[in-house]
Amino acid sequence: MMTPLLQISGLGKRFGGFTALQAIDLDVQEGERLGLIGPNGSGKSTLVNCICGTLRHDAGSVRFGGKTLDGLTAHQRTRGGLARSFQLPRPFGTLSLAENLRIPILYAVNARGEGGLAGSAIDARCRDLLSEVGLADKAHRLPRDLTQIEMRKLELARAMAAQPKLLFADEVMAGLSHAEIDEIIALLFRLNGQGVTVIMIEHIMRAVMQFSQRLAVLVAGRKIADGKPADVVRDAEVVRAYLGE
Amino acid sequence: MGSVPFVLALVCVAAALFAVGRWLNISYAFFAAYVVVQYIVLGTAWNILGGYTGYVNFGITAFFALGAYSSVVLYKLVPSLPLPIMMVVGGIVAGLVGLGTGYLTLRLRGVFFSIATLALAVVVQTLITNWDFVGGARGAYVLRPRVAPLIGGDYIQYLFLLMLGLCVIVLTVARSIEHSALGYGFAAIRDDEGAAEASGVPTLRLKLIATVLSGGFMGMAGAPLPYYVTYLDPASGFSLNYAVNAIAMPLIGGTSSWLGPVVGAVLVGGLQEYIRVTISSAVNVLVAGVLLVVFVVLAPEGIVGLFRRRRR
Amino acid sequence: MDASLDLLVNAVISGLLLGGFYAAVSIGVAISFGMLDIVNIAHPGFILLGSYVAYFANTMLGMDPILAAVIALPAFYALGALVYQVYYVAFERRQDQSLGGLSFFFGLLFITEVALVLVFGVDYRLVQARYIGPSLNLGWIELPLRLFVPFLVSMVMVVGLQLFLSRSFLGRAIEAVAQDQLALRLMAANPTRIKRVAFGLSFATAAIAGAILIVIQPVEPSIGREYIGRVFAICVLGGLGSFSGMVIAAVTLGVVESLTATFFGPSWAPAVSFGVLLVTLAVRPSGILGR
Fold it and tell me: What is the ipTM of this complex?
């Protein structure tokens, strides 16, 4: 078996007296579609923050592509191939939607050396990305003109703009209609088909079951299950802690 | 408009202004215009870190005075050193101090950086006040040459010309930042620094660049000051007026574009001069502070912002 | 040797008393910045305003400066509430970046300083009171009453506020706002009103702090600027949100400044606090007892 793309071992994170994450072990293979579920407050977003560098973890280690991420800043990790959408959208408020997507292109993609874009190619790429999430007609609007749902789609587009090797889609689908959920699932399948490893963090079980090859469950900062989706959803502890609610 | 046509346009405007002034040959006009152009430079320099990147620098007096006092030091060591070289040295000194301060404090929240710049202003003032070589609290005298080098005529015209030249450079830099990758990076930091980091923006490095540029230009603007006033003491060199004006003018004019500080400096500087001459010099000092508060509360986008909104 | 030890001890004592005074100066910012997260850099300007109010009452009416400050408390409280209201409407509600808020307070600082210059001029002003001049002699320790009375007043104010915050309903509401605004709103309390009260209180402390400032030393309008760094150095060093940390930091800074002034000369004193601030921010921004 090849070295997993993402290797998390013994990860722990405390906020003062509160333990948000404890002894998390998780491996993600390249090209895999992983679903991450769990009740609110179980630490899913904290886990993403620690992996992506927005927060510093207190214990354990994270390895990406065989190299340790410890000590790297968030922007270095993004340049290295990680990307994430924020659960609560954090757009660049004074920039248009197209300009929002420009930032990761200028600073993540172009910083990698090869495959950089320039001039009108950047504009074209921004337009294409916005089309993929259905926001092309609002390319020159400001984020404050968007609905919450549209802002979440912008988040996803901005993460995609960084051309990641591994993408965290953090609760992108909350509040979306049935058809919109299908669109996003199809989009993520397309991305995965292009070789991007996708970790989907969601509460919408239909989407998670449809999309994931593997399912991991986080409850109160601990991983309580990790395996084939069909098996995990039948696991007694998972049912009791999360699904049964 | 591309960068090159813009520079040419600016140079033409500057040359025209200078030519008119030279023809009129009114000394007072040069003294007053020098102040306005100096504030365009200070305001634009402040805006690179403030309006573009979102980090408020209250230590303007530190960088400005560092430039002024490095000129005093050079004057005492090598009196015949050409002023343009002194300006470059002043810029380098101020830029380095900016780099050091930034490195210590830019990893923290923006408010801590702002407080640290306040602290910096007082530290630098205390150090200069205790340094006898530059005159300490008693101040230093600088002899203004009787005739201007290169162009002849009053020396003040030469000072004005140098400040105009600096102004063209600073405005060109500010404008070219605006739509460049660097400018987008600054804007991302200003709008949401955490999201910027997550999008690949090296926030610390960009903030340091902005601080060095900003501080360096302020130092260059301060370098000719000893020749302008001929007597420089810490009380006037570190006057809070410079800080308030350098912040008020871009905020009033509009912080989102290079044009804002220009509009702010011309309007507020002109208004201050008018009040100084008609009412009193004490009241004119109050004007900038009051306008700052009024605009920040009622019209945060500044004058340029108001025009833009009406056009849309 | 003996004279030097004497000098040292008296410098330390002066420093302790001065530090107690610094606590009074900083407590306003400990409330507005430490608890409400409002960067009121104009606070020293309003302390100066308090000094001049005390000066005015003292020279025109022959009133004791500290008494004058106590009488002026409600006015300062009202002023603080007004400033907060403007700040809230202009910035907090819009959730604007800190650029506007910081500039607002910077503008206020400047306006108070210039207004004081316009009304009172740039000459140093001082007050007369029975306790300015005489000292309490305890053996070979000398306690100048000029420093000791302000120290006492300051301690009363700090302890009083601490008790208010921890015992009274309104005080605990303020502490709650400092920690979790959302929870407070969910419990049907109005955070804006509570913050307004707290901010008004911080201005009220400025009245007292100003009075004891002018008891300790003559004032002129620009010395407010020296205090910005001191106040924030103390709050950061002590840890935002901790009164006891703030007091420890205030006393520490007072002693360090006093020793510096005694052995290196008084003109270096302003640099001390700012140097402390810069170093603290660089090395341990959460302070001694910070959250």
Answer: 0.91
Q: Indicate the pTM of the whole model.
A: 0.89
Give the residue from C271, C146, C158, C116 showing the smallest Cα distance to C212.
C146
Q: Domain range holding C76? A: 2-222
**Chain B residues within an 8 Å CB radius of A104:** 199-200
> Which chain B residues contact residue A103 at CB under 8 A?
184-185, 188, 196, 199-201
First-to-last alpha carbon distance for chain C, in angstroms, is 44
Query: Which residue does chain B place closest to A79, by CA atoms?
Result: B200
Touching subunits of C (3+ CB pairs, under 8 Å) are B
Q: Is B119 on the interface with C (CB under 8 A)?
A: yes
The label of the residue with tokens 């002026």 reads C72
Looking at A202-211, B253-262, B282-291, C41-50, which range is the least confident one?
B282-291
B288 in contact with C at a CB cutoff of 8 Å?
A: yes
* Tokens coding A16: 């003062």
Positive or negative torsion for Cα B37, B40, B45, B48: negative
A19 membership: H or E segment, kind and range = strand A18-28
Residue with tokens 């040419």: B8
- Count of the separate structural domains present in chain C: 1
Please check whether residue C20 is in contact with residue C246, taking contact to mean a CB–CB distance below 8 angstroms: no
User: What's the average model confidence in pLDDT over C170-180?
Assistant: 77
Spans of all domains in chain B: 3-238, 239-312
Residue among A53, A103, A110 minimizing CB distance to B188: A103
B289-312: string of b/e by CB count within 10 Å (b at 16+)?
A: bebbbebbbeebbbbbbeeeeeee
What whole-number distance in Å separates Cα of residue A47 and Cα of residue A82?
13
Chain B contact set for C267 (CB, 8 A): 126, 129-130, 137
Which CATH fold would you assign to the domain A6-243?
Answer: Rossmann fold (3.40.50)
With CA atoms as reference, report the closest residue to B24 among B168, B153, B164. Answer: B153
Q: In whole angstroms, give the CA distance from residue B241 to residue A23.
A: 57
What percent of chain B shows pLDDT beyond 90?
47
- Over residues A187-198, the mean pLDDT reads 93
Tally Cβ neighbours within 10 Å of residue C179. Answer: 11
β-bridge mates for residue A15, sequence order: A18
Q: Which two tokens stand for residue A117?
A: 């874009």
Residue C1 pLDDT level (bands cut at 50, 70, 90): very low
The string of DSSP codes covering B110-165 is: HHHHHHHHHHHHHHHHHHHHT-GGGTGGG-EE-PPPSS-TTT-S-HHHHHHHHHHH
Q: Give A241 to chain B, closest Cα distance, Å.
A: 32
Burial class (CB in 10 A: 0-12, 13-18, 19+), A130: buried
Q: Is there a domain that residue C287 lies in? A: no
Most confident segment among A59-73, A165-179, B201-215, C143-157: B201-215
Q: Are strands C135-138 and C141-144 parallel, antiparallel or unpaired?
A: antiparallel
B50 close contact with C: CB closer than 8 A = yes
Task: State the pLDDT at residue C288.
Answer: 56
Per-residue pLDDT band at C56 (split at 50, 70, 90): very high
Residue C216 lies in a domain: yes
Is C277 exposed, middle or buried (CB count within 10 Å of its CB: 0-12, 13-18, 19+)? buried
Lowest-pLDDT range of A40-49, A84-93, A215-224, C136-145: C136-145
A166-170/A18-28 β-pairing: unpaired
Count chain B–chain C contacts defined by CB atoms under 8 A. Answer: 132
Integer Cα distance of C89 and C87 in angstroms:
6
Backbone angles phi, psi at A9, to 5 degrees: -135, 125
Provide the residue ranges of all domains of chain A, joining segments of one domain with +: 6-243
State pLDDT tens for residues C225-244.
888 878 888 888 887 777 88
* Position C145 in a domain: yes
